[in-house]
Design brief:
Strand content: under 5%
Keywords: Membrane, Transmembrane, Transmembrane helix
Number of strands: 4
Pfam families: ARMH3_C (PF08427)
Subcellular location: Membrane
Distance between the termini: 40 Å
InterPro entries: ARMD3-like (IPR039868), ARMH3_C (IPR013636)
Protein name: Armadillo-like helical domain-containing protein
Helix content: 55-70%
Structural class: mainly alpha
Shape: elongated
Length: 662
C-alpha cells in the first residue's frame, strides 16, 4: 500500500511526534528523515506524486539526523538497496536540471547526497566494493549515473557559481574518495578514474581567487586520487599531473602548499601553536607527489611573502614545532621580502626536525627528506638551487643545545643550495642520541651526496663554508665510535660510516673541480690531518669487525677499503709535518704552518682512484616505501573523515548565496 507524505505526516503526529513547543528536549524529526524512514520500511512515497522529487529537494534537512538514521536504523540495511538506487539518480537529475535556473534544489540535493553516501558507507557492510555501488545507484546503471554526477560537479566547479556551492561540491567528491580507510579498496573511484575531475581541479588552482577559497580541498582531492592503486596499475591522474604544463595552475599548486606551510611557520614563530596540535601531512604528500613526477617549477619561483595562508582550514596532524626545555629556539627576524616557496619549506623542515621522538613527527620529517631527495635528483631544480644570481635569505630555526651559543640569525643572501647544506649540517649535529635515527641520517647524507654530484658534474663552485660540513661529519664518526657497543647491536653503522667516508673521498678526488678556491681544498686536507685520530679509530673498529666474522663483516670490510685514501693522506703528511716541526724547533704548529707543509708536498702524494663516487641510486618509492606512503594516505583520509561533518556544512549560507544569483 502506498503511503503519501500527508498520510505519513499524519501517522507521525498520531504516533506522538513531538512539536516545537513540547517540553521534551528531544529534537523534532524533519520531513526528509521521515521520508527516508518510509523508504527503509519498503514504501515509496514518490508514487502517485509527480512533484515529489521537486518538493523533496526543496526540504531543508539537518543532515546529522539523516546520517544518523542511515547509520543506525536496523531496517536501513535491508531496505537500503533499491531505494537508494531510486534516490541517488533523482539527485543527479535534480542537480543537472536545477543548475543554474532554480537554485534552492541544487545545494539541498547535494547536502542529501553527502549525508546519503556517508550514511551508507557508515553501515557495517563489510567489503566496500561492488556491493556499495549496487546499493547506491545499481551496478547496471553505475557508469551512466557516475558520469552524470561528475559532469554536474564539473559544471559547478568550473562555472560562475557561488563559492559555497563549489565548496559543497568538493566536499561531496571528498566524501566519495575518503569513504574507505584504504583508498585503493574504494571501488567507486574506478568511475572517477574514467570520468576525470582533474581539469576541474586545475582550473581552481589556476584562478587566484578560486584557489584562496577552494585550493585546500582541491589539492586534498587530487592528492588522494593520485594515490589510488598507483602501485597496481596506471593511474590517469598521475599521468596527467606529470605532463601538466599550465604555469598558472602549477604556480597555484605551489601557492596552496606554501600557504599551508607558511601558516604553520607563523604559528610556531608566534608560539600560538599548542604542543598537542599538529599539521596535516597532506601538503607535504602533495609536494612529494609533484616533485616525484618531475614538477619542480612551482618551487623555483620568486614571490613576495605576503600570504597569510589559505582560507580553507587545514586539518591538524603530523609535526608540532615545539621542544621541551628551558632554552628557546632561535627565531628569525621579521621580514617582508622577495622569497620563494622553497624558502618556506626549508624553514618548515628546520622546525619539524627539532623533535622527532614522536612517531608522527618522525614520519613528517622523513617525508621532508624524501621530498628534498627527489628535488636534489632533478637537473632543473639543481640549476636553480645553485644559481649565483638567485639568492635568498633563509632563516632556519636551530635546536637549543647547552653546549653551543644561541646563533645569530643568518641575514646573508645566498643560493638556496647553501641553506640546504645548512639544514643537513644542523640535523647531523643535533640528533646524535641513543635512540639513533639511522634512516634519517642515511637520507640526510644522501641529499648532501646528490648536491655534490651535481656540483662536480657541472663544475659549480658554491661559495659555502665547507668546514662546517666536514666538522659535522667528523663529529658523527666520533659519536659512532664512542657508541659502538650500543649502536652496532641495533644498526649497521658501517653502512652509514661508508656514506660519510665516501663524501670525504668525493671532496678529495674531485674537490678541485667544485670547491670555491684552492685554499678550500687545502683546508680539507688540514681537517683530515688534524682529526686523523678519529679516522684511525674508525679504521680499527672496521678492521676488528671485518675479521671476527660478525653480521656486519661485509660492510666493515668495505669501510676499510673506503678509508684507503684518507689513510694515505694521513700517512703521507704526518711525518712531513713532524719533520718540518723538528727542523724549525716548534712543538706545535699553527694552521698556516701546517697548510704550508701540505701545499709543498702534494706532488709526492699517491692516491687510489675510487670508482662510482659521483654515482647514486635514484629514489624509488616502490617497493621500499610503499607501506610508509600507504599508511600516510590512510592517516590523511582518517583525519578528513574525523574533521568533516555534513552537519557542519552551512546549508543556510549556501542557500542564501545561491538565491542571490537569481
Amino acid at each position: 500500500m502506498t503511503t503519501t507524505p500527508e498520510k505519513a505526516d499524519k501517522k507521525d503526529k498520531e504516533s506522538g511526534l513531538l512539536r516545537k513547543g513540547s517540553s521534551s528536549k528531544k529534537p523534532l524529526k524533519e520531513k526528509v528523515v521521515q521520508i527516508y524512514e518510509s523508504f527503509f520500511k519498503g514504501e515509496d512515497p514518490s508514487l502517485g506524486n509527480p512533484n515529489f522529487w521537486d518538493e523533496f529537494f526543496l526540504m531543508k534537512a539537518r543532515n546529522f539526523q539523516l546520517e544518523g538514521v542511515l547509520k543506525n536504523d536496523p531496517r536501513a540495511t535491508c531496505g537500503i538497496k533499491g531505494q537508494h538506487q531510486l534516490t541517488l539518480p533523482q539527485m543527479h537529475f535534480n542537480l543537472e536540471r536545477r543548475l543554474p535556473d532554480q537554485g534552492g534544489q541544487c545545494p539541498t540535493g547535494q547536502y542529501t547526497m553527502c549525508a546519503l553516501i556517508r550514511g551508507v558507507y557508515g553501515k557495517s557492510l563489510g567489503d566496500y566494493g561492488f556491493d556499495i555501488i549496487n546499493i547506491l545507484v545499481g551496478f547496471d546503471a553505475a557508469e551512466v549515473q557516475m558520469q552524470r554526477l561528475i559532469e554536474s560537479v564539473h559544471s559547478i566547479l568550473t562555472g560562475d557559481n557561488p563559492a559555497g556551492l563549489k565548496t559543497l561540491s568538493l566536499k561531496l567528491l571528498l566524501i566519495l574518495v575518503t569513504a574507505t580507510d584504504n583508498v585503493s579498496q574504494n571501488t567507486i573511484l574506478e568511475y572517477i578514474m574514467i570520468n576525470s575531475v582533474f581539469e576541474s581541479v586545475v582550473q581552481i588552482l589556476a584562478n587566484p581567487m578560486s584557489r584562496q577559497v577552494h585550493g585546500h580541498d582541491a589539492l586534498l582531492l587530487l592528492t588522494i586520487l593520485v594515490n589510488y592503486r598507483k602501485y597496481e596499475s596506471v593511474n590517469p591522474y598521475i599521468v596527467k599531473l606529470s605532463i601538466l604544463d599550465d604555469e598558472l595552475a602549477l604556480n597555484g599548486l605551489g601557492w596552496v602548499i606554501s600557504s599551508a606551510l607558511t601558516e604553520f611557520n607563523r604559528k610556531y614563530k608566534e608560539k600560538k601553536e599548542e604542543p598537542q596540535k599538529q599539521m596535516t601531512p597532506f601538503s607535504l604528500l602533495c609536494m612529494k607527489r609533484f616533485t616525484s613526477t618531475g614538477i619542480s617549477s612551482p618551487f623555483s619561483q620568486r614571490h613576495t611573502e605576503t600570504s597569510s595562508g589559505p582560507s580553507s582550514p587545514t586539518t591538524t596532524r603530523a609535526v608540532e614545532g615545539t621542544r621541551e626545555g628551558p632554552l628557546p629556539s632561535t627565531p628569525p627576524p621579521d621580514s617582508s621580502q622577495t622569497t620563494n616557496h622553497m624558502v618556506t619549506f626549508l624553514q618548515y623542515c628546520s622546525i619539524v626536525m627539532q623533535d622527532i621522538k614522536d612517531e608522527q613527527r618522525l614520519c613528517s620529517f622523513k617525508l621532508c627528506l624524501v621530498i628534498l631527495t627527489c628535488i636534489a635528483e632533478d637537473q632543473y631544480a639543481n640549476s636553480f638551487l645553485h644559481d649565483a644570481n638567485m639568492n635568498f635569505v633563509v632563516h632556519l630555526y636551530r635546536m637549543p643545545m647547552r653546549h653551543r651559543k644561541i646563533a645569530v640569525p643568518n641575514t646573508s643572501s645566498r643560493p638556496l643550495a647553501c641553506a640546504w647544506l645548512d639544514l643537513t649540517v644542523e640535523f647531523i649535529v643535533t640528533h646524535m642520541m641513543k635512540d639513533f635515527p639511522m634512516e634519517l641520517y642515511m637520507r640526510c647524507l644522501g641529499i648532501v651526496h646528490r648536491l655534490l654530484c651535481y656540483q662536480k658534474k657541472c663544475r659549480v663552485r658554491l661559495q659555502y663554508t665547507w668546514k662546517d660540513l666536514w666538522t659535522a661529519l667528523i663529529n658523527l664518526v666520533k659519536f659512532m665510535i664512542a657508541q659502538e657497543a650500543h649502536l652496532a647491536s641495533r644498526h649497521n653503522i658501517f653502512y652509514l660510516a661508508i656514506k660519510v667516508v665516501n663524501l670525504f673521498n668525493l671532496f678529495i678526488t674531485y674537490g678541485d673541480t667544485f670547491l670555491p678556491s684552492p685554499t678550500s681544498y687545502d683546508e680539507l686536507y688540514y681537517e683530515v690531518i688534524r682529526m686523523h685520530t678519529v679516522f684511525d679509530n674508525l679504521y680499527s673498529m672496521a678492521l676488528r669487525h671485518a675479521t671476527n666474522h660478525g653480521e656486519h663483516k661485509d660492510s666493515a670490510t668495505r669501510l676499510t677499503n673506503a678509508l684507503v685514501n684518507i689513510r694515505a693522506i694521513v700517512n703521507h703528511f704526518t711525518p712531513k709535518i713532524d719533520s718540518w716541526s723538528a727542523a724549525n724547533h716548534l712543538s706545535s704548529l699553527t694552521e698556516d704552518q701546517v697548510l704550508e707543509v701540505v701545499r709543498s708536498n702534494y706532488d709526492t702524494l699517491t692516491l687510489k682512484l675510487q670508482e662510482s663516487l659521483d654515482q647514486y641510486e635514484r629514489y624509488a618509492e616502490k617497493p621500499k616505501e610503499s607501506a610508509f606512503f600507504t599508511q600516510l594516505v590512510r592517516s590523511i583520509i582518517s583525519d578528513f573523515r574525523k574533521s568533516i561533518s555534513v552537519a557542519t556544512l552551512q546549508q543556510e549560507t549556501v542557500l542564501q548565496e545561491f538565491s542571490h544569483i537569481h
